[in-house]
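seq:
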Amino acid sequence: MRRYRIVHTTSLVYDGPVRAAHNELRMTPPNEAGQTTLENRIRIRPMTWSHVYRDHWGAHVMAMESLAQHDRLDIEAISTVERSAAPLPAATCTWATVRDAAVQDRLYEWLMVSDRTRVGDGIAELVDAVRGLDSPRAAADEICGRVREAMEYRPGATAVHSTGEEAWHERAGVCQDFAHVTVGALRALGIPARYVSGYLVPRRDLEVGESATGESHAWVELWDDAWVPADPTNGTTVGDDHVVVARGRDYDDVPPFKGIYSGRATAALEVRVAFTRLA
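struct:
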C-alpha cells in the first residue's frame, strides 16, 4: 500500500476582466478496488456557486458558476489517496466472447467510434497486423506494445484537441494521444475499451515525506470478462503509482477542467500537480 497527497493546481489568468464563467471540474479520485480516497477538497478563488454530481460514466463532477467580474480563476484540488496493487484478471475471453451480440450490446458505448478514436489508414494497418493472434488479450497486449514502440512521447507534437489519427500520423504525442490510438485500435478489433484519466506518480522511488512535481496522465482499460488496465505510454503495469480520476469514451468525456466565460479577454492556463508520499 502507498498513500499520496496530490495537489492539483489550475490557474486561468485573463488579460482583462471576464464575467459569467461556467466550468466543470473532474478532480476527485473515486473509491474503488485498490484505491481509497481518504480526503478530497477543492478550493476555488474567487468564491463561486457549485453543484456536485456523478456523470453518466460515474465520475465525480463539480459544476461551478461565477457571475462576479474577475481577471483570474484559481482552483486547488487536494486529495489524499491510498493505492494498492492488484493482480491482473486472468485472460479468459475468446474472440467468440467479444463478438457475441449480447456482449456487444451491453458494452456498446465502449465500442463506439468517436472523432478522437477514429481509425485511419495507418491505425487500420496496425489493427490488421494483430488480427490473427489467438485471443483478444494477446491482441491487446501486442497493440499496446506496438503503439509504445512506434510513437515518441513528445510534448508539443499535438494539441489538446488532436485526434488519435493525427498523433499516429506524426508518430508522436503525449499520453492522451497514446491512449486515443490504443482505444481506437482495440475497438476496431471489436474489443471494448475505455479511456482512463488520472495521475501517475512521477517517481517510483519517492520516499515517505518526499515530494515531486508531475502531471495528469491517461491510460486505457480493455474488457476481458473484467476491465484490464494497460499503460501504452510507459509500457508498464498499471499499479499503485497510478491514481484513477475518471473514465470515458475518450478525453472529451473526462477533462479535468472545462468551461466557458463571457468577456473579450483571452485566457492563459497554468497547471501544476504536486505529489507527496505519506506512507
